Predict the 3D structure of the following.
Amino acid sequence: MTSTHSADAESRRSRQLEGALEQIRGVRSARVIFADDDLVSEIHLVGDSDRRPKQIVRDTESLLLARFGIRVDYRRISLVQLSEQERAAQERLQLVSSAVAPGSDSDVHVVLATSAGEYTGHAVPEPPPDEPSHARAAAVATLDAVCQAVGHDLPFVVSEVHLVTSEEGQQVCLVVITVAGDASQRLTGSSLVTKGVPTASSKATLDAINRRLSAWLGG
């Protein structure tokens, strides 16, 4: 019971900090990770490209210290900045769900949404239907849904999908996409496993291809 309450308290604290960080100009989303000693170990930010990275990092340090009394070394803060086209593409293609289909022990269904509607991709994992095979199936199903959203096939193949555990004990899904017929062209993406392996795999797949989405979606 104590561990459950501790986890709930940490989750609430993370959301509080993330909500505050997302008020910083140029920050679109934030993820705060705590270490076992209840100290902030990592801060991951996604921001706009119209502000200097150092300004956003300094604002992050200042806000945490002034409002919460938390001192964070700048080296613990990672920032990914997206261009206007990349933001538009991501806003137009959203992950709705990624999970094993109801009534099925293995089939993975992925639903993506754009302003035009929803698109469902599906794939059957290779036996045995365990976490790694569900992760690969989710990546394949995500590309299937993207093809439907774009309206034509894309020359991309799920090359590798790995589930790894960080030193802090956090599971991470890594996805490698290659261009069919040219394995030297590799796109990589990653996502923390927080809402299930299929969801993390779909997010990692979209992370791998997001720089191409604006062209595919007519951005």
Helices lie at 2-21, 53-68, 84-92, 131-150, 197-216. The domain at 92-216 is CATH 3.30.160.270 (Double Stranded RNA Binding Domain).
